[in-house]
Amino acid sequence: MIRFEENKLIIEIKDTDPVEAWAVLHSGLCDIIRYVKQESICDDSFSAVIDFMQELIPEWDTVHQHFVSK
User: Fold this and answer.
1) Which of 49, 56, 50, 48 lies closest to 11, judged by CA?
2) How many domains does the structure of the chain reveal?
3) Could you give the CA distance from residue 17 to residue 14 in angstroms, rounded to a whole number?
4) What is the DSSP secondary structure assignment for residue 7, as one 8-state letter?
5) Alpha-carbon distance 13 to 1, whole Å?
6) Residues 49 and 43: beta-carbon distance below 8 Å
7) Cα–Cα distance between 70 and 68 in angstroms, integer?
8) CA-to-CA dists, residue 69 to 16, 27, 30, 39, angstroms
9) SS3 label, residue 25
10) What is the pLDDT of residues 8-50, one digit of tens each?
11) How far apart are CA 20 and CA 12, in angstroms?
12) 8 phi and psi, to 5 degrees?
């Protein structure tokens, strides 16, 4: 699900193991980007995708809390 707020967009993906789902999604997106020929797409689009990928990397505290709480 995606929703929009005043200055951000929020993507929610329901899964029984969110960390595993994130890892698979992030890895798959990285694989796709790795094989794209940058000259075949608009630079603005490529930059936007890279920025999006950066936002998908969780803060260290978030990751640490997840594993400490288990």
Assistant:
1) 56
2) 1
3) 9
4) T
5) 6
6) no
7) 6
8) 16, 24, 28, 45
9) helix
10) 888 888 889 888 888 888 888 888 888 887 777 777 787 888 8
11) 14
12) -160, 165
Give tens-digit pLDDT for 47-59.
888 888 888 887 7
Question: Which domain range does residue 63 map to?
Answer: 2-68
Helix, coil or strand: residue 19: helix
- Which stretches within the chain are classed as H helix? 18-35, 43-55, 60-68
- Residue 8 and residue 33: Cα distance in Å, rounded? 24
Residue corresponding to tokens 């929703």:
3
How many Å apart are CA 11 and CA 20, to the nearest integer?
16
Only one residue has tokens 């608009």, namely 42
